[in-house]
Amino acid sequence: MALKAEPIIVNTSYQAVFRQLEAAILRGELSLGEAIPTEANLCDLFHVKRTTIREGIRLLEQSGLVTRGSGRRLIVSAPDAGRSSENFIRSATLNRVTLQDLWQVERELEALACRLACATISQPQLEQLAENISKMELHKQEPKVTIRLDMEFHRLITDAAGNRALTLARDPLGILLYASTDFVVTRLEQSTERMLAAHRQVYEAISANDPEGAVIWMTKHMDDFKRGCIMAGANFDEPIADFVDHDTLAKLLLQNRGPHDAHP
């Protein structure tokens, strides 16, 4: 007889408390900004001990679904994007995602951001892009500043696209990929000039509401990034963890954290 069986999964009580509260938040039964019930109320609701409730709440806090409000009440909140980025980066590192994997996806997302931004960008956002280019011109002999400004340029375009799903998807990839920009900028003298030239062309195309031109120049920019990495000695088939400058990565992650993550 061929016996078929499903795996038996036994959750501890505090995990069950966490899952039910998580589900209530995701269904909208507990809304953003709303205080969750007190520990005493939750004990009555779930028929468990206070220590079990506290462990379940601890998992909620770790997931970013609740934060401490005034009076120490726990308030429903959306997980900070920085927290999501850090989780993705850990997973990508442990699963040995290659530089080629990362670059390939980021290349498409950057092109999409340019296309969307052409239709949605505001005048203040255009001015921010222009200011970013001016700063990079001023600091082009300073590799660390150049890396920060390069990442800011791409993030400004993503923000201008006005698509939250794109922002959440792109952020962790951008952090990882642009942490590796250090590898190129510090090894190839011409890399900053080429980066600046591409940024100017992308800016001009977006300013002119020319999505095709913006996509062409962003794609050239990303292709040039890959060529520069290879010229600097990078192997695109190697895991990204072997290529990224980890000091730069740590700083970028710190900058990307929300206020409640930056000040534990």
Concise summary:
By secondary structure, the chain is mainly alpha-helical. It has two domains: 13-76, Arc Repressor Mutant, subunit A; 81-262, GntR ligand-binding domain-like (Four Helix Bundle (Hemerythrin (Met), subunit A)), CATH 1.20.120.
Write the layout of secondary structure elements.
Blueprint: H1 13-26, H2 39-46, H3 50-63, E1 66-68, E2 74-76, H4 81-94, H5 99-120, H6 123-138, H7 143-161, H8 164-179, H9 181-185, H10 191-207, H11 211-231, H12 246-256, H13 259-262
Antiparallel strand pairs: 1-2
Characterization of this structure:
- The chain is mainly alpha-helical and 264 residues long.
- It has two domains: 13-76, Winged helix-like DNA-binding domain superfamily/Winged helix DNA-binding domain (Arc Repressor Mutant, subunit A), CATH 1.10.10; 81-262, Up-down Bundle (Four Helix Bundle (Hemerythrin (Met), subunit A)), CATH 1.20.120.530.
- It is 69% helix and 2% strand.
- The chain is built from 13 helices and two strands.
- Strands 1-2 form a two-stranded antiparallel ribbon.
- A hairpin with a 5-residue loop joins strand 1 and strand 2 (74-76).
- It is elongated.
- Mean pLDDT is 84; it is low at 258-264.
Beta-strand content estimate = under 5%
Q: Enumerate how many helices there are, as a single number.
A: 13
Order of helices and strands: HHHEEHHHHHHHHHH
**N→C terminal distance:** 57 Å
Helix percent band: 55-70%
Overall geometry comes to: elongated
Structural class of the helix and strand makeup? Answer: mainly alpha
What's the level 1 CATH class of the largest domain?
Mainly Alpha
Q: Fill in the CATH topology of the largest domain.
A: Four Helix Bundle (Hemerythrin (Met), subunit A)
Largest beta sheet: what is the strand line-up?
1-2
Q: Which architecture name of the largest domain does CATH use?
A: Up-down Bundle
Total domain count: 2
Give the beta-strand count: 2
Q: What's the assembly state of these chains?
A: single chain
What would CATH call the homologous superfamily of the largest domain? Answer: GntR ligand-binding domain-like
What integer value in Å does the Rg equal?
A: 23 Å
